[in-house]
Amino acid sequence: MTIDNCRDLTLKMSMNKAGRRLTSQRLAILNYLRGVTTHPTCEMIYKELKDEMPKLSLATVYRNVKYLADNNLVLQIKGDDGKTHFDGNTTAHLHLICKQCKKIYDIWTKKIPAFNGIKEVAEIDNIDCTIYGTCYKCKN
Ligand SMILES: [Zn+2]
Ligand SMILES: [Zn+2]
Predict the structure, then answer these.
(1) Structure confidence at residue 2 (pLDDT)
(2) Could you tell me the CATH number of the domain that includes residue 3?
């Protein structure tokens, strides 16, 4: 699935007239998101990448991340802090958001829950399921 996504992105980028600079920024953002499990916001991505990419601006991060999300290359998660967070791992998994520290945890399950009635209404593209709780780090 990851390789297919990658190929897909390369294909889409080769058709993109925006040029090489935008292309490499987009790839750098995608690689960054695939390498972390922190579910960063655009601001966090910008802060992490700006040193190695001096030409990067927050607006560029927003634009590129939107492109990646629109093309299902990254997941969007509505954080409990009111901000949109991003996940480079598009393999189906669930998220748990701690109500106290606002951290977004990945929850892996062998079986993504099947919900009755969905198939009668629509075909599923992806499941975005968020569970809220208090993590044990905050509880202790
Ligand atoms: Zn917590
Ligand atoms: Zn995740």
Answers:
(1) 44
(2) 1.10.10.10
